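Subject: complex prediction, re-run

Hi both,

The earlier run crashed halfway through, so I resubmitted it with identical inputs.
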Amino acid sequence: MSLRIPGPTPCPENVLQVMSKQMINHRGKEFAELLNKVTSWLKELFQTRGDVFILTSSGTGSMEAAVVNSLSPGDRVLSLSNGVFGDRFAKIAETFGADVTRVTFEWGKAVDPDAAKRALDADPAIKAVLVTHNETSTGVTSDLAAIGSVVRKYDKLLLVDAISSLGCIDLQVDNWGCDVVVSGSQKGWMVPPGLAFASISERGWKANAEAKMPRFYWDFAAAKSYLEKGQTPWTPAVSVFYALEIALGMLIKEGLPGIFERHARLGRRTREGVKSLGLSLFADESCASNTVTAVKSPDGVDSKKLVGIVKDEHGIVLAGGQGALMGKIFRIGHLGFVTESDIDDVIAQLRLALPKVGYQVPA
Amino acid sequence: MSLRIPGPTPCPENVLQVMSKQMINHRGKEFAELLNKVTSWLKELFQTRGDVFILTSSGTGSMEAAVVNSLSPGDRVLSLSNGVFGDRFAKIAETFGADVTRVTFEWGKAVDPDAAKRALDADPAIKAVLVTHNETSTGVTSDLAAIGSVVRKYDKLLLVDAISSLGCIDLQVDNWGCDVVVSGSQKGWMVPPGLAFASISERGWKANAEAKMPRFYWDFAAAKSYLEKGQTPWTPAVSVFYALEIALGMLIKEGLPGIFERHARLGRRTREGVKSLGLSLFADESCASNTVTAVKSPDGVDSKKLVGIVKDEHGIVLAGGQGALMGKIFRIGHLGFVTESDIDDVIAQLRLALPKVGYQVPA
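This time it finished cleanly. Structure:
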């Protein structure tokens, strides 16, 4: 069974093998060395000189961490959302008492930096902006450099969900003025789920010092003080750290240009393959993601049914649509440990499966 | 290197091996079967017919979950604490706005149910009681049945940190009237860290429906609605679930009486061994824990130094003291995958190490 969902992604064999290592003391020297090593590698891949923390949680936990470490109840927050995960980020902020203004964009289109500018003009009280770099539910990458430039001009805090982009797509945390950026181990990092990552800028720390939302497990200040002694505040998912060390070693060796080019190639290959089947991409090609491709289900075809057949009869696990897109699209993950021949196989199997749901693939 | 700290604990070889399995879709049928199976086993080991949820986090995350799912800011809460982890539970509740009355007990002694009774008499406005079943920092097990009986009489909510007791020591969640009980995978469960467990009673659900503390990642209502379709709300630590399936299978096969008797034997063996070295137990023997034993450092000996020598020269990792006990005690973990001969080895190595810090072991 080949897993081609946008996370968890398949892991390389050497990453999986090391998961079988026996436990070590998470307050001992060996773990401190491991933690320091992977933290410094993450900083390099986050392109930041700020702090990076590793949380034992899924990506959603790190989104909650970004919010509660930066804001106070009643703070005005601008949410820029073009899909399920953008909406989730806004909902988390609301749950903790932020006063959220939602600017939404048509699903399949990118976040428009000009709309952000207009919203910030309209409400000078806004303190922070929430944005999803790569919207996994629609396969859209927004222009975070441009969004960051707007947010910096207005001197607001920028919180970024980069769960399905970091380690795959260029994201210059410092250069683009991102204050808190979060990601999850089970995406392009080629690691099993269980760890999430969060960077925080100097400016983020200033906000943190004033932020009144309650936090304990997610507290970045605790994470920082423990990191100084080579520890995490709470018991970490040790085995996933073992995997992270191997996978980050591979990524550091490949280098950021190689990582970005690999995902760009995989993205192009997937989009070309989908079009060769006569199917339509859900996202505007101008903002199509290089980590996940959303495909419109052929007219009259429930994408759930297609996804089921591709899995049961062709051994490939694709993702369906989420929220309002359930049944209407299917999604192909091409982030992390995936090759062009894996993508060719997905397209070949789709070619065989589509006629079974009544869609004739053009010759 | 033998790990004899009270978590992470060593894992059996078959538990570790399965951690190397490739990822699967966390929203697919195979994961649903796994989740349903381990959830039903956990219910059996929690001795509850209530709900049990599995969170991707460390044990502290589940303590936060217990608090935010049950309380509202301003709620009066009684904390019964006899150590570092009892204090942590109180601090979490305060962080989220509870009005906490702290009743503390001398470290090394058990929580006194009569003191709980007096505190509840003194303040009828108390809504919930926080207690640590097994205080890992001092090696003390409190009489939770008696505490539960008091709390039930006063019709209060009972939130229990059972992180280092469940799966080792008898804890009758339903019979003893516990409303929310939490534990962590890296303890007696013989599984690497990364998952935490939480049970909730009918009464807990009623409190949950009214509880106003903000929650998103930890939300039990979300966990329940996803569990009904065989999923977790957020991406779970899939590999740790693989390990959990193997380890719970072993525990279920052994049965609760066997599990409790095994830990009772290990506890006795450890205490007898420590006494044979002429050392003193830190905890009152009447409430000494069967999962972790705290030992007073010999007069004038910094326990940190002893722990360092035992590790570097004898290959055994013990735990030092926490908080006010730093340097004053050392702790031996004997929960989960540990045998009596492992304990005999700890004692034998201590016998060799102690003279190096100037303590003469009696002949």
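Chain A touches chain B through 53 residues (CB under 8 Å).

- K.
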